[in-house]
Write a structure and sequence with these properties.
The complex is a heterodimer of chains A (305) and B (979).
Chain A: H1 3-6, H2 13-17, E1 18-19, E2 24-25, E3 28-29, H3 30-60, E4 78-81, E5 88-92, H4 96-110, E6 124-125, E7 149-150, E8 176-181, H5 199-202, E9 209-216, E10 228-231, E11 238-240, H6 248-251, E12 259-264, E13 272-279, E14 295-303
Parallel strand pairs in A: 5-14, 6-7
Antiparallel strand pairs in A: 1-2, 2-3, 4-8, 8-12, 9-11, 9-13, 10-12, 13-14
Chain B: H1 20-30, H2 43-52, H3 56-76, H4 81-107, H5 113-118, E1 123-128, E2 131-136, E3 145-149, E4 157-169, H6 171-174, E5 180-182, E6 197-198, E7 203-215, H7 221-231, H8 238-267, H9 272-286, H10 291-308, E8 311-313, H11 318-324, E9 327-330, H12 332-336, E10 342-348, E11 351-354, H13 371-382, E12 387-388, E13 402-403, H14 406-419, H15 422-428, E14 431-435, E15 443-449, E16 458-464, H16 466-471, E17 473-478, E18 481-484, H17 487-502, E19 506-515, E20 538-547, H18 554-563, E21 567-571, H19 576-586, H20 596-603, E22 617-621, H21 622-627, H22 630-639, E23 642-646, H23 650-662, E24 667-671, H24 677-682, E25 685-689, H25 695-700, E26 703-705, H26 711-751, H27 759-769, H28 771-776, H29 802-830, H30 835-838, H31 842-845, E27 853-854, E28 860-861, H32 863-891, H33 899-902, H34 908-927, H35 948-967, H36 972-977
Parallel strand pairs in B: 9-21, 9-24, 17-20, 21-23, 22-23, 24-25, 25-26
Antiparallel strand pairs in B: 1-2, 1-3, 3-7, 4-5, 4-6, 4-7, 8-26, 10-11, 10-20, 12-13, 14-15, 15-16, 16-19, 17-18, 19-20, 27-28
Helix pairs in contact in B: 2-4, 3-4, 3-9, 8-9, 8-26, 9-26, 10-26, 11-26, 18-26, 22-23, 26-29, 26-32, 27-32, 29-32, 29-35, 32-34, 32-35
The chains are: A alpha+beta (305), B alpha+beta (979).
Chain lengths: 305, 979
């Protein structure tokens, strides 16, 4: 920051950079530069020490198993797979390339759900294959070692599992998406009371399932959206509670969150159809500002040719 | 003269004047007899200038980049595009508002020409077509014959062809306190010196005159002075230069870091658009948006404080100029002196007595027991035509208005102070005959009855030029006795006369004669034309000498200026002897200093043989100055510490000021007359007298002394030096946090962490929390006796020097940054994002369609959840900077002394600043936390304390710095750490 000096003699830039009379480089002699650099070396060395020290002290107050605060991350978001740019799924049935990206995204995501990934009984619990209550696994600490996790079988997703149809219905113009509730440590989603649900969902009510429903976002899209098939555990359109609570990356490194596949079997082609999917629960919130909290929106634009 | 005579024909004595037609012709050629106002810059240009001055350009660039970014983002459909639009608008608003503020400040200073034009007389009596007529003075043309009489303002520059007892007051033009007589005789080739020219805008005091107009309008002497004054460019004030220097430093840093990181960002494969956004952030973080306004406020606070002490500051920046002043060029008349003739010395009984010449004299303390004094006082009282205007019984004598000329007024007041009721005495000694003073006789006499009813003699009293009076005397009064005026007595008179004259005083002789009763009975018809009474063989009574005395506060003020390292130079239009005498009496030439001439006289050698370096003092005549080269003038200014310039013209005053400025001095000029106005304008700071000053002087000046007290300048110097020191502190305070604002962007670019602080938030620090504290530093008391140090060197003692910038930027600023980063990391860590997770996270973090990013615990975050956390981070970072700025504010109270020496509580305003700072932060976080656009969130209480250890570290470190500076003056530490 020797700039201040430089301004003194506007015409003397050259002399300022290297003054051969006084052997000064940028206004300082070699010795002077050495001293000042040594000073800053020590000064910044000390500061770095102090900074690292205070960061360490701060980290000591934080548990490695459970975050101190979760007020920013809960209530959780609802995410759709494949992850799409501008939430728009747009492809042409005839052109395999146009949906390759979506298929790849689904393949990648569902890899962890392959049966060969879930063989170890050390890690995986034999949970019931029908919705049940929360499965508490004790404290948020590693006193008892790692926690087990429930299995979630890929084939429960049926037509959308990618096992029968590797294109997840895209080649037939019946696209699948997979829905998951964002993981939040220790979060126990509470299913809604029966009467607070939209009437069309009432029929499949189960007290151990957090229901999800997809519908046309706009009035005029209602008849374009066609039939929606839900594939989840035991045919329930929602997330079974025994997968909750989540114990975190350290205690449950292999945790599989429950999934729900949704297939749109009769979408109108060659037009934009906007679909919103929503998860219902007493402690699930929605926000105008956060359009991915407890719901999401996706736009289909399928070209028939 | 030859060239003039054909114009009005052979009939010089009975001029017919111009014909109306000819006058109209000339009027059409020369234009009206009025001063043309200078071309003024259009207001809109002035306004636009403010819009691009200082940091404005940088901020405009920032705003423009914002809008470009907005345009591109809108085209790309980015959700957060509008943030950039708002930021651009906010930046533009900041520029416009500060511009309006600066424009308003500038608009306050008024136009110099306004008062020059006001001085034009309304009507003039002109002879045209052989008859007298009243015309508007604007209609006068060269060649017109005009008549003037006592009380008139001279309507143009006039060459007199007839004058009777004409006297003019030239004091505003030349600085001469005494009325100048005017006659038809050409006495000097210098138009300012010759007696046959009366000048435009001066006043005719008495007598009548007829003359021919030789110059009108801008061609007149005053017109030339006016154009000289308006032709003198407004020099940049030292503080303006300092601020410009500082702006250059900051802008240089901003631009170079901005460009550097733009290049780094581009080469790190950031998109150009992102790089532009980084650039905006870096500019906003680097520019102390609120600082220039703060400086203005600080200056105006000082200006207010000075106004209370009778220094009215017209140009805000001049507040500091006085503090850096190293030379004061002071006018004599009216500035150093009272601009009023006062009796200073008396000589009677062969002895010189001094009279009190202070402004509020109520008694005179010299020995008044002698009979000679009784006689002298009688002459003084009676031989005097001046009278008090009636109805002033309750006004102090020295302040009463008198009808009469300056020396008679002085004598009247002098007599009134000692004897009281002069008018009563005159009534009791009825005046029978009188011959008023005229330039041929050089005396004035009157004949009176005496107040003693038993004494039937008449008393003739006479006063006049001492040598003429002495010629008419045969006796002299010593201790009340008449004694023959022998050779010895005459020599004593000569010595006294020379001595008083040498003091620069105007000496008058007094004599009287009791007319014998037998020759002059009661009924004797005195005839002043035939002078049927004796006017010789009188009895000499005594001498009185008068001077325009120095103001009583001036000597003290001059010596204070000396001790503050300020050179005081007298520049006057008056005569060298008077000037030197006044200079000696006020200490401009100190008691034991000698001029070259003095030394020559003492050693009895020719002036040329004297070693010039032996003489500390110098008295330079205007005529000598005229022949000097620039180098010679420089030599005089360098070699002599005590200088008096006498008989100087307005141009020469200008030359002297320029000479001083060549020595790198900051020059203050004090003055009151029109003749001073060019120099006042040229000076770094022009100081005009508020009471005695002419409007032209007041308009040309930057500062006006309301009480005409030279001593107020000393107060001004003190305030000016203090504000310079305090502005240093303010700037150091303000610059520090710029690093804490800048580092987040650099780390953001380099380490790709979520952005620690937003641009809007930065603006809230710069224009919100920091404003009041930085103004509060203007109230800080001085650390040591600032009046005992030398004035700062214009080119060496900078407002913002290397040490200040380095210490603020690279030391305290860095500590502040890491303190704020600690808070940032704490907020993120406690929410699930440990520091190591944050590194390299930026791209995913800012992806609008990535709604399930995993944190350190495996939790998944939506975009908005992350954004909200990011704002919490902003708030924490903001709060941490604020908390550390409190510490910064406290350490900036002093630069050398310990805070405990200075006292934590002495400057209450600092605490107002601290409270305001915290209050604003609280309001922003908790009150406006719900307003999305502002990017603040309600913060957990503990985050307010995270940076506290660093705040304490700042304080402790700075105390250590100051301790070493005090302990080891001149050491490496002192040189590098003292700013």
């Amino acid at each position: 920051m020797a700039r201040g000096k430089a301004k003194e003699g506007d015409g003397n830039w050259k002399k300022f950079i290297w003054n051969s009379e006084k052997k000064e480089f940028l206004g300082r002699t070699g010795g002077s530069w050495f001293k000042i650099l040594l000073f800053y070396l020590i000064f910044y060395g000390c500061l770095a020490g102090i900074f690292i020290g205070t960061i360490q002290v701060m980290l000591l107050t934080i548990s490695e198993f459970e975050p101190k605060y979760q007020d920013r991350v809960a209530p959780p978001g609802l995410t759709v797979i494949p992850r799409v740019l501008k939430t728009e799924i747009s492809f042409s049935i005839a052109d395999a390339k146009s949906y390759q990206e979506y298929v790849a995204g689904l393949n990648k995501f569902l890899k962890d759900y392959d049966p060969d990934q879930q063989t170890s009984d050390m890690v995986f619990d034999n949970c019931a294959e029908k919705p049940e209550d929360y499965m508490n696994r004790g404290e948020f600490s590693n006193v008892q070692g790692q926690k087990k996790v429930c299995r979630f079988k890929r084939d429960w997703l049926e037509n959308c599992s990618g096992i029968l149809d590797p294109s997840y219905g895209y080649k037939d113009g019946k696209p699948c998406v997979v829905i998951k509730l964002n993981r939040v440590l220790g979060f126990k989603p509470k299913p809604p009371l029966n009467d607070s649900l939209p009437p069309e969902m009432m029929g499949k009510y189960n007290p151990y399932v957090l229901p999800v429903h997809c519908f046309a976002k706009k009035e005029e899209d209602v008849d374009k959206i066609g039939t929606i098939e839900y594939y989840g555990m035991a045919g329930y359109a929602g997330f079974p509670l025994q997968y909750y609570p989540y114990y975190g990356k350290l205690l449950q490194p292999k945790y599989l969150q429950p999934l729900l596949a949704v297939q749109f079997t009769n979408l109108t082609y060659d037009t934009e159809v906007r679909v919103e999917c929503k998860v219902y629960g007493e402690n699930i919130g929605y926000s105008d500002k956060d359009r991915f909290q407890g719901r999401f929106e996706v736009k289909f634009d399928i070209k028939s040719s | 003269m030859e060239s003039l005579s054909p114009m009005f024909g052979p009939d010089l004595n009975f001029p017919r004047g111009l014909t109306s037609a000819r006058a109209a012709e000339i009027l059409a050629r020369d234009g009206p007899n009025a001063l043309t106002p200078p071309k003024s810059t259009p207001e809109i240009i002035k306004f636009l200038k403010q819009m691009v001055g200082g940091f404005s350009i940088l901020l405009w660039v920032g705003a423009l980049l914002c809008w470009i970014a907005f345009g591109i983002q809108v085209a790309q459909g980015v959700a957060s595009a509008f943030d950039n639009l708002y930021l651009g608008v906010v930046l533009a608003l900041v520029v416009i508002l500060t511009g309006i503020f600066a424009y308003y400040q500038e608009a306050k200073s008024t136009n110099i020409m306004a008062s020059f034009s006001k001085m034009i007389p309304q009507q003039a009596l002109v002879i045209r077509d052989g008859e007298k007529r009243e015309v508007s003075a604007e209609q006068l043309v060269v060649g017109d014959m005009v008549e003037i009489k006592g009380g008139d303002r001279i309507p143009a520059d006039i060459r007199l062809i007839f004058a009777q007892g004409c006297k003019v007051d030239n004091s505003s033009l030349t600085g001469e306190s005494e009325p100048q007589s005017r006659s038809c005789d050409f006495t000097h080739e210098n138009p300012l010196e010759t007696k046959n020219i009366a000048f435009y805008s001066t006043t005719c005091l008495e007598g009548t005159a007829t003359g021919m107009v030789i110059n009108t309008g801008d061609q007149t002497i005053i017109g030339r002075i006016a154009s000289l004054a308006s032709g003198v460019g407004n020099e940049k004030t030292p503080i303006a230069i300092e601020i410009e220097h500082f702006v250059h430093i900051v802008a240089g840093v901003a631009v170079s870091i901005g460009v550097l990181f733009f290049i780094i960002a581009v080469s790190m494969k950031y998109k150009v658009l992102d790089s532009i956004i980084f650039l905006i952030g870096i500019i906003v973080a680097n520019v102390p948006e609120g600082l220039l306004a703060t400086v203005t406020v600080s200056l105006s606070l000082t200006a207010k404080r000075m106004a209370k002490k009778n220094c009215l500051v017209k140009n805000l920046e001049a507040v500091e100029t006085l503090g850096s002043t190293s030379i004061i060029c002071s006018d004599k008349t009216g500035t150093l002196t009272q601009n009023r003739m006062t009796v200073a010395h008396l000589w009677f009984d062969d002895q010189i007595y001094s009279a009190d010449t202070s402004e509020e004299q109520t008694t005179q303390s010299f020995d008044q027991s002698s009979q000679s004094w009784a006689a002298l006082s009688k002459v003084v009282t009676l031989c005097n035509r001046a009278e008090f205007k009636p109805g002033q019984e309750n006004v102090p004598i020295m302040k009463r208005v008198v009808v009469g000329d300056a020396s008679e007024t002085a004598l009247l007041k002098f007599a009134e102070v000692i004897l009281g009721d002069v008018m009563g005495i005159r009534k009791r000694n009825r005046k029978l005959a009188e011959i008023p003073f005229n330039s041929t006789n050089k005396f004035q006499l009157s004949i009176h009855e005496t107040e003693d009813p038993n004494d039937k003699r008449f008393l003739m009293v006479m006063k006049g030029a001492p040598e003429r009076i002495l010629e008419r005397c045969s006796t002299i009064m010593i201790n009340g006795e008449e004694q023959p005026l022998d050779r010895e007595r005459a020599e004593a008179f000569q010595t006294a006369y020379m001595e008083l004259g040498g003091l620069g005083e105007r000496v008058l002789g007094f004599c009287h004669l009791y007319l014998p009763e037998d020759e002059f009975p009661d009924t004797y018809p005195f005839d002043t034309d035939s002078m049927n009474f004796p006017t010789s063989n009188l009895c000499f009574v005594g001498l009185l000498s008068m001077i325009d005395p120095p103001r009583s506060t001036v000597p003290d003020a001059v010596s204070k200026c000396r001790s503050a390292g300020i050179k005081v130079i007298m520049v006057t239009g008056d005569h060298p002897i008077t000037a030197k005498a006044i200079a000696k009496s006020v200490g401009i030439i100190s008691a034991n200093s000698e001029t070259v001439e003095d030394i020559a006289k003492r050693l009895n050698v020719p002036v040329e043989q004297v070693n010039k370096e032996d003489a500390r003092a110098a008295v330079i005549n205007g005529m000598e100055l005229k022949d000097m080269t620039t180098e010679q003038l420089d030599e005089i200014l360098i070699n002599h510490s005590e200088i008096v310039f006498a008989r100087t013209s307005p141009q020469q005053k200008l030359i002297i000021v320029e000479g001083c400025q060549r020595q790198d001095a900051v020059v203050a000029v004090t003055g009151d007359g029109v003749n001073d106005s060019p120099a006042l304008k040229k000076a770094d700071i022009g100081i005009a007298m508020g009471i005695a000053g002419s409007d032209a002087a007041k308009n040309a000046a930057d500062m006006i002394l309301l009480d005409d007290n030279f001593a107020s300048i000393v107060t001004g110097v003190e305030e000016g030096r203090l504000i310079f020191d305090n502005l240093k502190k303010t700037i150091a305070y303000t610059l520090t946090k710029n690093i804490a604002e800048l580092c987040p962007f650099l780390i953001y670019i380099i380490a790709s962490v979520p952005l620690p602080i937003g641009t809007i938030t930065i603006l809230f620090i710069d224009l919100g929390t920091d404003i009041i504290p930085s103004v509060a530093l203007a109230y800080e008391k001085a650390e040591s006796d600032i009046m005992n140090r030398r004035p700062r060197h214009k080119k060496k003692d900078r407002l913002v020097n290397e040490q200040l910038a380095v210490y603020s930027y690279l030391q305290i600023g860095i500590i502040q940054s890491i303190g704020a980063f600690l808070a940032y990391f704490t907020v993120y860590a406690e929410q699930g994002w440990l520091p190591n997770t944050l590194l390299g996270l930026r791209v995913n973090w800012e992806d609008d369609y990535y709604n399930d990013i995993e944190d350190s615990y495996g939790q998944e975050w939506t975009r908005y959840q992350r954004t909200y956390l990011q704002w919490t981070g902003y708030t924490a970072f903001f709060v941490s900077i604020t908390i550390q700025q409190v510490a910064d504010l406290i350490i900036r109270k002093t630069r050398r002394n310990s805070i405990f020496q200075q006292g934590l509580l002495r400057n209450k305003v600092i605490w107002v600043g601290i409270v305001s700072q915290i209050a604003i932060a609280l309001i922003l976080s908790y009150g406006l936390g719900s307003v999305t656009a502002l990017n603040f969130t309600p913060l957990r209480v503990q985050y307010w304390f995270v940076a506290m250890p660093y705040a304490i570290l700042i304080w402790v470190y700075d105390e250590i710095r100051k301790l070493f500076i005090r302990q080891y003056p001149g050491s490496w530490w002192d040189k590098n750490m003292y700013y």
